Amino acid sequence: MDPLRDGNAYARDSGYEFLGEGIPLDRWAREYPVPGMEKIQYGYNYKDLVLNVITVPRQQNACNFHRLIDDREARHVFVEIGGGYGSFALDMRQILPNCAYVIVDLPETLIFSASYLLSHCPDLRVYVYAPGDNPAEILKDTDSFDFAFIPNYRASALSALPHIDFGYNSISFPEMSLDSVKQYLDLISPKLRRFFMSVNLRYPLDRTIKRPGTDETLGDYFKLFPTPAEYRSQLSLTEDQYNNPSFRPVFLCTTDKCRPLKQTELHMFYNPNYGKVTVNRKASGAAIVRRTG
Ligand SMILES: C[S@@+](CC[C@H](N)C(=O)[O-])C[C@H]1O[C@@H](n2cnc3c(N)ncnc32)[C@H](O)[C@@H]1O
């Protein structure tokens, strides 16, 4: 049986194609073959790329980063909190080929992301925290590494970074304690030069845990684009729809010290219930959020 099924219909119906519109194909998110095990790939074959259900959210976020960045070849500092097995970081290498990429995660997850990224990028300079290290010594020189893997219990080392161009968190703030989320935002917000992208459900899946929505916590640190009110009113979302875990709005978070956001059209595809959505920014800074079909 050929595990790589025809992907044309999947790329269209999943939103993958729409999410990549206008972006060169070599920057699209994909499933990369494991070096030495190239025959083991599952998913859909589309334009010679392999994709599956976990590729699509990465396609949304990687392509939106591409739309928002006009100096992709420059050296940037990128901080991802909760990087999973490292697949988004690998996608981002095509978008930002020359960046110092820091992943902060639980040590048991760093085992997977570090081994995944080391296998795929054997030529890059990688720092993996070891007990007894002082990770601040590494992080203070962002020209000295391409990837750094920092366990959550040494997150305070982020304060050694001279600056942070981009921050990113996808589908993981709500699974951390609120104190952890605040610790990360306390560390990142003062150093941020461009924006922090959050793509999250609003509340922990365990709804017995009472805490502010992810958007509200982000709002304590940043100005959000679009605002929660813009999403709600322009997509006509009820309170229940906005709170639903399947609705994962993209927020671009900035402080007064950040460079203004680039004028561009962002593409989002929440799920078949909400469909294709575009977001544009008016000169006033307000968002135009539209379903496009
Ligand atoms: C659901 S996964 C999401 C992974 C990836 N961001 C994605 O969108 O596919 C949640 C991630 O958050 C990480 N995580 C959980 N608690 C954390 C904490 N306190 N600090 C940093 N990362 C944490 C998990 O280890 C995992 O990498």
What does this structure look like?
This protein has 293 residues and is α/β, with parallel strands linked by helices. The protein has a single domain (54-265), classed as Vaccinia Virus protein VP39 (Rossmann fold). The chain contains 10 helices and 14 strands. It has an 8-stranded mixed beta sheet. A 3-stranded mixed beta sheet has the order 1-2-3. Strand 4, helix 4 and strand 5 form a beta-alpha-beta unit. Helix 3 (55-68) runs parallel beside helix 4 (87-95). The chain is globular, with a radius of gyration of 19 Å. The protein binds S-adenosylmethionine (SAM). S-adenosylmethionine binds next to strand 5. S-adenosylmethionine is lined by residues 81-84, 104-106, 109, 152, 170-172, 175-176, 180.
Question: What is the secondary structure topology, with strand pairs?
Answer:
Elements: E1 4-6, H1 8-13, H2 16-20, E2 43-46, E3 49-51, H3 55-68, E4 76-81, H4 87-95, E5 99-105, H5 107-120, E6 126-128, H6 135-139, E7 147-151, E8 164-170, H7 178-188, E9 192-199, H8 214-219, E10 223-225, H9 228-234, H10 239-243, E11 250-254, E12 266-269, E13 276-281, E14 287-291
Helix pairs in contact: 3-4
Question: How would you sum up this structure in a few lines?
Answer:
The protein has 293 residues and is of the alpha/beta class. It is 28% helix and 24% strand. Residues 81-84, 104-106, 109, 152, 170-172, 175-176, 180 line the site of S-adenosylmethionine.
